[in-house]
Each structure stands twice: as structure tokens, then as C-alpha cells.
């Protein structure tokens, strides 16, 4: 006696069945988010015992190196694998050519060394671009017309990368969007013996309105003249992001980043589909501020908003996410 197979349809088929209890929802979850998925961006400032809250980024402060070390230990204890460091360079150390980026004793290098001393097991990602060091707030060198010149900037970025690697950086993350910089930096790292120093390329970085609070944090908002549209990508473009990623991978990037995050999850998903390499996203300062503002206005539950947005990155295909909510989210998840 054979029984004809009948494909199920409602009422036999009910997608709500597996959602009916918490244990079942947990069993059927396609993605999970945890502290191991986070990279925590931190802002370093001069002095000791200094905490400077950033008003446009509520809940985030600049810390002097001792405070950064304390944050690094908290991150490590919460299971966060990696920090991203950004310096707030004093005005008298900024210049047209950003040469403070090459100083082996600059704030970044001192912070890297202090973290490596106190918490050697946490990874350190360092940003490569000149905006924290220039008087004009652009990521590179300017010609007489104010255009950010590519090849001469790349030469300085090589020096900046080697300086960070020598101080102990684990992941060099060029965020400048100059053409050819990943290959040039990789070659220089190899030549200097930094074979295991990774490159996470800010491959698809958009000229975005979501970076405002970050510029406050590193002190470049008031300095920046004009915009960054002649090197960062046009938000209108998606296919071009795939070309940017392809080039950075061909030049030796170990992983790639899409930035900003939530408004560009379509790009994350396309990159993951097309290349199947480690993809990260940066949930940038303006996104963080938007979540904080909406929670403060009573539009939603802060913790739920944080965890839902972070899960969206995993669903889109991210290996991990740079987020200012990292410690808070890790502690929520750890319980
Ligand atoms: N290169 C790092 C950034 O530009 C961060 C932007 C942000 O958090 O708004
Ligand atoms: Mg590029």
C-alpha cells in the first residue's frame, strides 16, 4: 500500500509552530551574536586620569592611555577579541602633512604599547589615514587646489602603517580610500618582517553624513573644509563597491570592511555573496547616536534596539562589527 506524498500546505503547514516557545525559537535561530563578534572603537587623548565625554556621542568618552588600558581589560574580560584605536591629536601636533602619524611616540603608539603590556591577549586594530593629524581634517595630502593627492599620500600611509606595526598593532586598517594603498602597505609590512600583521581594508567607505560625532571625538569637525567626496564612495553606488573590494583583496587584504553599517547592509550582503571572504561592517558614530537618541526619546527600548541592529549585521553576512555599543552589548549577552 503506497501513500502518495502530499506537500504540506496550511493548515498542516504552520511557520508559527517553531516560534511558539522560547526553547524552540532558540533552537531554530539561524544566527547568533556574541562578544566574539565585536570590535570596540576607543578614543585616546593626552594626559593621565582623563575622561572627556563626547556630547554628540552620549555614553562614549575619550580616555587617556591609563583609561584605555582599563577599558582594554574590561573588553578582554567580557570576551571582546579586538579594539580599534583612534587618537585625539593635540592642535599643536597637527600639520599640513600629518607627520605626527610617523612619530614612534605619538599617542596611538603609546596606547598600543600600554595595552600590549597590560592585556597582551586582546587584538589591536589601528586606523590608517591622516585626518587625526592634519590641520585641514582631510585624510591625505593636499595640492594647491585643495585636492587630496593619491600617490604622495600613499607614501605617508606606508610610514604610518609601519609605525603602528612596530608599536604592536595586530590589524592595520587603512580607512583613507586612496587607490593602491593596500598593496603598497602589504609590501612594506612584508619587507619589514611584519608577516603576521593583518590588513583589514576599509574597502567600501562611503562619503556619509553619519560620521559627525566621530569628527567631534577626534577633534577634526571644526577643521574639515569641504567634504571627502573625491575619495570616499558615492552612496548612489553598489557595483563600484564590489570593484573596490576585488582590488583590495587582489592587493592582499585579509578582510574587508563596509562603512557605514546599517544603511549599507545591501553592500555587505553583496560582498559576502560575491567573494565569501571575511567581511566586517562599521556601525559608525551617527548610527550609534541615532539609536541613543531614539531610545532617549522613548521610541524604543535601548537594549533591544542595540541587539537587533547588531544581529542584522550577522544576518547580512558579517564576520564581525565595529560598534561603540560593544562593551554594553557584550555585557547584555553575557548576562
Ligand atoms: N575611520 C574611522 C571613522 O571614520 C569612523 C567613523 C564614525 O564612527 O563615524
Ligand atoms: Mg580602493
Automatic annotation (TrEMBL):
A molecular function (GO) term? porphobilinogen synthase activity
Q: Where does Mg(2+) bind?
A: 244
The record's listing under Pfam families reads: ALAD
Show the active-site residues: 205 (schiff-base intermediate with substrate), 259 (schiff-base intermediate with substrate)
Which SUPFAM superfamilies does the record match to this protein? Aldolase
Pathway involvement of the protein, from the record: Porphyrin-containing compound metabolism; protoporphyrin-IX biosynthesis; coproporphyrinogen-III from 5-aminolevulinate: step 1/4
Q: Tell me what reaction this enzyme catalyses.
A: 2 5-aminolevulinate = porphobilinogen + 2 H2O + H(+)
Alphabetized PROSITE patterns for the sequence: D_ALA_DEHYDRATASE (PS00169)
Any one GO BP annotation for this protein: heme biosynthetic process
One Gene Ontology CC term in the entry: cytosol
NCBIfam families named among the record's database cross-references: PRK09283.1 (NF006762)
What family is reported? Belongs to the ALAD family.
Protein name listed in UniProt: Delta-aminolevulinic acid dehydratase
- What organism does this protein naturally occur in? Sphingobium phenoxybenzoativorans
Amino acid at each position: 500500500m503506497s501513500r502518495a506524498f502530499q506537500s504540506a500546505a496550511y493548515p498542516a503547514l504552520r511557520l508559527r509552530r517553531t516560534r511558539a516557545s522560547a526553547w524552540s525559537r532558540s533552537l531554530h535561530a539561524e544566527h547568533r551574536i556574541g562578544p566574539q563578534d565585536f570590535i570596540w572603537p576607543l578614543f585616546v587623548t593626552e594626559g593621565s586620569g582623563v575622561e572627556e565625554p563626547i556630547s554628540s556621542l552620549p555614553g562614549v568618552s575619550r580616555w587617556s592611555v591609563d583609561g584605555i588600558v582599563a577599558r582594554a581589560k574590561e573588553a578582554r574580560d567580557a570576551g571582546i577579541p579586538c579594539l580599534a584605536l583612534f587618537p585625539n591629536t593635540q592642535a599643536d601636533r597637527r600639520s599640513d602633512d600629518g607627520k605626527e602619524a610617523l612619530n614612534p611616540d605619538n599617542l596611538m603608539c603609546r596606547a598600543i604599547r600600554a595595552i600590549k603590556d597590560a592585556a597582551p591577549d586582546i587584538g589591536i586594530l589601528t586606523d590608517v589615514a591622516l585626518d587625526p593629524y592634519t590641520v585641514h581634517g582631510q585624510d591625505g595630502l593636499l595640492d594647491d587646489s585643495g585636492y587630496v593627492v593619491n600617490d604622495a599620500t600613499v607614501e605617508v600611509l606606508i610610514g604610518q602603517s609601519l609605525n603602528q606595526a612596530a608599536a604592536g598593532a595586530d590589524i592595520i586598517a587603512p580607512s583613507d580610500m586612496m587607490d593602491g594603498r593596500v598593496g603598497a602597505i602589504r609590501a612594506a609590512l612584508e619587507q619589514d618582517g611584519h608577516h603576521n600583521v593583518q590588513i583589514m581594508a576599509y574597502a567600501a567607505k562611503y562619503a556619509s553624513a553619519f560620521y559627525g560625532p566621530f569628527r567631534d571625538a577626534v577633534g577634526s569637525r571644526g577643521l574639515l573644509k569641504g567634504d571627502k567626496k573625491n575619495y570616499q564612495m558615492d552612496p548612489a553606488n553598489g557595483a563600484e563597491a564590489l570593484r573596490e573590494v576585488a582590488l583590495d583583496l587582489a592587493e592582499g587584504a585579509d578582510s574587508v570592511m563596509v562603512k557605514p553599517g546599517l544603511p549599507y547592509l545591501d553592500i555587505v550582503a553583496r560582498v559576502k555573496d560575491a567573494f565569501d571572504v571575511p567581511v566586517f561592517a562599521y556601525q559608525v558614530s551617527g548610527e550609534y547616536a541615532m539609536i541613543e537618541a531614539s531610545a532617549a526619546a522613548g521610541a524604543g527600548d535601548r537594549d533591544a534596539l542595540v541587539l537587533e541592529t547588531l544581529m542584522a549585521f550577522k544576518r547580512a553576512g558579517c564576520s564581525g562589527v565595529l560598534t561603540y555599543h560593544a562593551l554594553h552589548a557584550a555585557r547584555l549577552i553575557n548576562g
